[in-house]
Each structure stands twice: as C-alpha cells, then as structure tokens.
Amino acid sequence: MANHDRVSERYYGEINSEESHEATRTRIHWMCREATGKRILDVGCSQGITSILLAREGFRVTGVDLEEESIRYAQGELAKESKPVRNNVEFRMLDITQWKVKTLFDTVLLGEVLEHFAHPETLLIQIHRLLQEEGTLIVTVPYGYHPFYDHKQTFYAGNLAMCLMPYFEVLKLEVHHKYLCCVARKRRKTQLHMSPTLKQVTEWMQLDHVHFAEVEQNHLRLMKLRKKALDQAVEQVKRLRRQENVEG
C-alpha cells in the first residue's frame, strides 16, 4: 500500500488541520535553511514542495520518490513555476537504495523517510556514497511514537543520533512541533562501532527530558479540559432528568 504523503497540500493549507499546516511549514522551512552548497538531493520528495522552494532560491535540486502519483503531482506543481525555477529541478521516480548515479551532492534531505526503514543502514550507506566530502545530511522524523502503519522505527534524540553516527557526525538536534530535526556531516570513513561520549548522551537525554515534560504537561491540560467537559455534560444530563421528572 502506498503512503500517499500529501505534503504540498498540507503546506498550502488545503488538507488537514491548521496545526498540521504550521508544523509542516516549520519543518520544511527549517530544512531549507539548513541546506548547504548548491546541489541538493531531496530523497522522498513526495509532492515536491521542498525541492521547489529551494529551486526558487537558486539551488539545483533532484527530487526522487518511489510513488508515481507523488512524482506526477510534483511535476504538475513545477510546471506552474517560472522557467528559471523549472530549470533548477528534476523529479525522478526511483528507488534511492538502487540508484547507481555517480553524481555527488552537497546536501541530502531525508524528510520523513528514515522511519519507514526497518534497516536504515541500507539507506544511510547509499546517502554516504552520494554526498560530497563533508557534505550535509538533513533529517527530519516524527518525534516519538506516531501510529502510522508504515512506521517501522520510533525515534528519540539518542537512537536517531546513534543510527546516524557510523556514517555522519551529528551537528545539531532540535525538536520543532512533532518533528525531530537533525543536521549531520558526512564522515570521511564509516565507523560502524562508534560509541557516543558522555557529553553527547547527556545532551540527548536533556533534549528528550525537556520535550517529554512539555508533552506530559500538554496531556495533563487536555485531560483537565476533557474532565471539565465531561462534568458539565453529566450535570446537564442530571438537569434534564430532573426537568423530565417535574414535568412528568
């Protein structure tokens, strides 16, 4: 079953909630800000919004995705752009893990991709090959558990960093809305048995601590609101029953 990720439609506010629109825009704009160099590979480009935004700023972007429907939509959106933007983007339907191209990129984007891999090293080894020396990897994943049928990984600060560490040096980890956002640099050589330093572990734990505290506070507020609404509903039912008894 295809994922049918409708990211461009969410970005423009055409589907889902206002909160979803804001979260999508925040994540995509963050990725665009972190891109370096001129040649960008957008892996899992979906409907193409990130590739097009970068092309508007003069980047040369290749967007790839497994889903024919998504690539067709992206190409339709690109056709609406000016000629300079159209010349800066190429959309292709392909399996990135099998791509034999010799082109090297300055930045690779993995927006909402890694959580779909049961064996992420398959993808990361290929991304390492496709990046220039000290090239930039930008990753966003759902932060914590998100109940989607094709999510094979649940990521927090520590296990995302550990997943990337053998191939990339993690430079930045942040949380924006419900997304864990990471910037990393390509290692000259992969190091499959790396261990994090105590400082790194402490930083990852602190990030999770801060954001889990926020999540718990939000849940408590929501529970209080629901309890208040339930209490009001119960009182209303009692009043209606008393009224029925009086009228009866």
TrEMBL record:
<feature type="domain" description="Methyltransferase">
    <location>
        <begin position="37"/>
        <end position="143"/>
    </location>
</feature>
<keyword id="KW-0808">Transferase</keyword>
<dbReference type="Pfam" id="PF13847">
    <property type="entry name" value="Methyltransf_31"/>
</dbReference>
<dbReference type="GO" id="GO:0032259">
    <property type="term" value="P:methylation"/>
</dbReference>
<dbReference type="InterPro" id="IPR025714">
    <property type="entry name" value="Methyltranfer_dom"/>
</dbReference>
<dbReference type="InterPro" id="IPR029063">
    <property type="entry name" value="SAM-dependent_MTases_sf"/>
</dbReference>
<protein>
    <submittedName>
        <fullName>Methyltransferase domain-containing protein</fullName>
    </submittedName>
</protein>
<dbReference type="GO" id="GO:0008168">
    <property type="term" value="F:methyltransferase activity"/>
</dbReference>
<keyword id="KW-0489">Methyltransferase</keyword>
